[in-house]
Design a protein that fits this description.
With 227 residues, this protein is mainly α. The protein contains 9 helices and no strands. Helix 6 packs antiparallel against helix 7 and helix 8 runs antiparallel to helix 9. The longest helix is centred in the middle third of the chain and has 27 residues.
């Protein structure tokens, strides 16, 4: 008897429940499309994703191994069976985790920056927001050139263009082209258009752009003397 009453109650409840169609009307935001970059919200979301990329560069131990291990500052420690040991003894392989962290995470950020730079004016955002994207595009290319040398400016749709079509083919541009076509122009624009005071806590600003521009000049000058 109890089961019968429960079944009747459940049937009545189902009939009285409102339609759930609105709940199932999904609007996924797992990918940024070219159309999304034509809105101010899309530009803001794109910049947020560029900042979040930094956690993959500086969050794990990879950057520490790439910058300090093998010098007088540090050694590989307990990473004797990992990529820290390879970097310390200069037995570097393409599969080295410290290197692949940079290679795998810079290009998505660069492509997002390309989209922001291309679509920012159309979306009506300020030059300062577009300058943030230029700063990070130069920043990521600086990481690539100081780690690997030559790097591709064309991700599939043309040099420094926002790519929407996945491609398995890539051509690395000469280091001097990466500096003269991207790193220097982008950082100069960032210096000219970024505010001295960050728009939000921990966002980039004119001072950071000036620092990296000076660092890029020194690094490029060092490279020219040796090539």
């Amino acid at each position: 008897m109890k089961k019968t009453i429960f079944s009747i109650f459940m049937a009545a409840a189902l009939l009285l429940m409102p339609s759930c169609s609105d709940i199932l009307d999904e609007q996924p935001r797992s990918a940024l499309t070219p159309e999304f970059f034509t809105t101010e919200q899309g530009i803001q979301y794109g910049l947020t994703s560029v900042y979040s990329q930094l956690r993959w560069i500086y969050g794990p131990a990879g950057m520490m191994y790439l910058s300090t291990v093998g010098t007088d500052e540090a050694t590989y420690g307990d990473n004797k069976d990992g990529y820290g040991y390879e970097l310390d003894i200069y037995d570097i392989k393409a599969s080295n985790g410290g290197l692949t962290t940079i290679w795998n995470n810079t290009f998505p950020a660069i492509n997002t920056c390309n989209g922001i730079i291309e679509k920012g004016s159309e979306a009506g955002v300020s030059d300062a927001l577009i300058a943030e994207a230029k700063f990070f595009r130069a920043f990521n290319y600086f990481l690539l050139t100081t780690t690997f040398g030559d790097a591709p400016l064309d991700l599939g749709s043309g040099q420094l263009k926002f790519n929407t079509t996945p491609s398995r083919f890539s051509t690395r541009d000469k280091l001097e082209d990466v500096y003269t076509k991207c790193i220097f122009p982008d950082l100069k624009d960032a210096v000219a258009n970024l505010p001295a005071t960050p728009r939000r806590t921990s966002t980039t600003n004119k001072i950071a752009a000036e620092h990296f521009l000076a660092k890029a000049y020194l690094t490029y000058g060092w490279w020219l003397e040796r090539n």
